[in-house]
Amino acid sequence: xxxxxxxxxxxxxxxxxxxxxxxxxxxxxxxxxxxxxxxxxxxxxxxxxxxxxxxxxxxxxxxxxxxxxxxxxxxxxxxxxxxxxxxxxxxxxxxxxxxxxxxxxxxxxxxxxxxxxxxxxxxxxxxxxxxxxxxxxxxxxxxxxxxxxxxxxxxxxxxxxxxxxxxxxxxxxxxxxxxxxxxxxxxxxxxxxxxxxxxxxxxxxxxxxxxxxxxxxxxxxxxxxxxxxxxxxxxxxxxxxxxxxxxxxxxxxxxxxxxxxxxxxxxxxxxxxxxxxxxxxxxxxxxxxxxxxxxxxxxxxxxxxxxxxxxxxxxxxxxxxxxxxxxxxxxxxxxxxxxxxxxxxxxxxxxxxxxxxxxxxxxxxxxxxxxxxxxxxxxxxxxxxxxxxxxxxxxxxxxxxxxxxxxxxxxxxxxxxxxxxxxxxxxxxxxxxxxxxxxxxxxxxxxxxxxxxxxxxxxxxxxxxxxxxxxxxxxxxxxxxxxxxxxxxxxxxxxxxxxxxxxxxxxxxxxxxxxxxxxxxxxxxxxxxxxxxxxxxxxxxxxxxxxxxxxxxxxxxxxxxxxxxxxxxxxxxxxxxxxxxxxxxxxxxxxxxxxxxxxxxxxxxxxxxxxxxxxxxxxxxxxxxxxxxxxxxxxxxxxxxxxxxxxxxxxxxxxxxxxxxxxxxxxxxxxxxxxxxxxxxxxxxxxxxxxxxxxxxxxxxxxxxxxxxxxxxxxxxxxxxxxxxxxxxxxxxxxxxxxxxxxxxxxxxxxxxxxxxxxxxxxxxxxxxxxxxxxxxxxxx
Amino acid sequence: xxxxxxxxxxxxxxxxxxxxxxxxxxxxxxxxxxxxxxxxxxxxxxxxxxxxxxxxxxxxxxxxxxxxxxxxxxxxxxxxxxxxxxxxxxxxxxxxxxxxxxxxxxxxxxxxxxxxxxxxxxxxxxxxxxxxxxxxxxxxxxxxxxxxxxxxxxxxxxxxxxxxxxxxxxxxxxxxxxxxxxxxxxxxxxxxxxxxxxxxxxxxxxxxxxxxxxxxxxxxxxxxxxxxxxxxxxxxxxxxxxxxxxxxxxxxxxxxxxxxxxxxxxxxxxxxxxxxxxxxxxxxxxxxxxxxxxxxxxxxxxxxxxxxxxxxxxxxxxxxxxxxxxxxxxxxxxxxxxxxxxxxxxxxxxxxxxxxxxxxxxxxxxxxxxxxxxxxxxxxxxxxxxxxxxxxxxxxxxxxxxxxxxxxxxxxxxxxxxxxxxxxxxxxxxxxxxxxxxxxx
Lengths: 781, 441
Description:
The complex is a heterodimer. Chain A is of the alpha/beta class. Chain A is 27% helix and 19% strand.
């Protein structure tokens, strides 16, 4: 440890600390703009100049390493003179348009100008003007004259997002932050640049001019999207959510959030919101009061149970729901006598059910990821499925850790990879088996039975070599690995690889309550039907909790057909959808994210309960209350809850911050694998779930829907495959799966394995198609 | 090249004729003898550094840092290291390095190879600025000759010492002459200086220990070793060893490069350059490149051309570029031009330089154009203080020092400008002294 004295206060700091870090530790504030604890040191704003004993000139605190016995004065005459001088320079070309600037009230430059600025300017020359830039639908760069060139946004792109989308062009006072020619800012983490910008140069386009920061009340919440459990600050004015910002939590999201977390709130105020209960009367949906709607639903459910048996009722719940909603959905179904409950919407292989040792989870804490020496991710559209997991893995690679990918497309993770295998979905098991076999050979142990015929490729050996080395290692299974029809085998192989290499096995999991749903028991019970079976063997009645089966299910065509033939479909959700107008017999408006209390259990098993931060829209009610009343109307026992906490305490021990007994073990024999797949020449679909279509909330967020990530689906094929089919790129093609078809534009993409067609799921244009990784036909339209 | 009387040149000997730059000519003049001796006698690297240290050779780029000491900062342990030569001379008035490349590129190559040997580097780059394209090509040609003769490349002169040398050209940004901006530029990045510490000897090119010296410094190394450190030291005066090239420009009869021993009186140098043009009176002189504070005639005439004397007079020897101004010069106009240069060449990275250099220019420009205000001179003084010592690199200081120098010695001219809105030196006098106007009028 090094001794340092800051403003007369003695303290000790670890070697390698900077004066800025030491000052933070001592509680002294040093003004700064370009310094950010998560970004590299630029030392360009010069605001943090401080006096250091024996140094002839003031030194930047952010870039000056602490030397033993150093004496620092942050507010001496010399330091303050330097800071004032820098602030004067920063202000001369700044427009000082605070009254019309969106950053007003939460602007670092404004704050420091109060502390260090003069009362009048000595600058009497012409101010420099910077023309507006176009950066896409999320970030506004209309007033770039405000920019103070701290380059935080540039460094964020290079270091955190992994892609440099903003840079500083030109030199001297003509320096400008701008996008690359003709490009916009498309990173899925781009919104963080708005937070990083210390002035009003980069502002939130959706939020601009809607409120002043001091008019907003700040409430804590947790993201309902991916499985990270991102902590949010939701800002509310007049019961409307106007802005969402990251709430710093070093163990989870650090100080970042994805654009989906940040901008999906727009959907809360969308015209699609369901505000009144509705029931189908004479073929048409009519608005009714809650008691009428609940009576209707209760009677219909009772009738069907009485006439066709309780097993003719099935419930499907979205893993984006709160754990309480998931719990009460299954409790209601159990009460009715049906075990047909599931929340694993896009899964189609359930061979591991009954063979898992416990609830699948990440296998470690999120904060441990970046300290791994090596990691392998299997079957994931990493950046788009899990932007902040990808960010953690990026930091792992930046620190010298090795990341390898085995997946179905060549999408760029914006991470330097140790090795990568890209194969058609049907070969994913074989590819992972190759890694297992290579690992066994490198370890000098027996090759697991069934893998004798497998030939590991060079990349598989590289992946194995990365995993057999000493240190902390992990294998993560992504969304694709769970959605494939061989999910069970992938799980078993990954478990084998984990056993061989000592790497931790984990599931990244797709939704905010993927773990919570399992903990709440929203899974088939007894001989209950799972998410696939309940549509493959159509039921008489369906209860949908926050699900839009036309987008959210593994085979939406099959799901919608099953819903169409049912006698009763009760759709509980926050939004009206066009498909629901056809299949739903009762629509019950639920309070959306931010409007209801509830609990999320993240991939790492962390339990986070949140309060509602504003009143539900219209007559919408929190899901747990709706289910409670429905239980009461049905006269089911045990539905007398006073609060959502009382619901939670039934399945999560009170006060628990982490779920215990999570386990990724599996007892599933490995099926023998042949050396090569029997390629019948047919095409296979690769369906990604585009980041901004992944759940009902994101689908209705207007600004997110304008981003490049929300472009309508196209059919991406390998150029060779296009040639073989005689299809020219950029022409219209008809893709068919079963009875469903879609008209799309064919695009060449060398990242798609030959023989495959990448067609996104979860979009209206492709909703009538079948399985996500099933056979598909493509022909010229 | 005019070298007169008792002055004994070292670097520029034999710079006559069109073929002086060729390998054959250089070897005939005794070139590569130092390298051969080092290789053949297997002189330890530490001894080479020691000899350079003893010679008192100081960096010729501007800062005058002792070369041997700089070399000794390089880590001793083996590993990737680099030698970089800075031929990005972009400061107004400085044009010595390009003549070295024009007339004697092999001395630079030999100096760099010896430096590589001394610090244990196996690769070097010579960064040549983009405006002297034909000299960049000439250096490449010289490199080819040296490579073919076995002075550069693998197993130099049959030994196990390998040193690969490449030329790299920039595009003319002044800030790329700042050593860390130059390293960034070689790496293919925008030429923005790095914050120091760490210094290049610890973290340099591609993050590896790097020694970076000026062209003239490398060029002097073979001569230092050939004549012996003591003889080189004695060629100048204590603390100011050897000879130096002085590029003399401005209002003299024979502008050009003059090699004189350090410690040569300024009047001698002025006489070598043919004296003040048209027999006019000397008004002022910038003694060390445009960033050095200007000195009025009576001060500079008492100076000797060396680090100590010029430093004592309140300026600095810098790159040795001497800009001579006669009595027809308007000092406000001269400063306006200099301030424009520093504003234009600021990389824009750090606040005081980006904003301050422009502000300085704006004010001087206003004064020159009759819109000066009484408070302007105090403001200029204040701003230079707010820039100096507060920037990432020395460009901020380089922009501030001329302003301070001009205001210190020629404040009355600025005041006259502000009060009367016109030059103290009458326009017709300025015009008479200008080749630009005399050519057009």
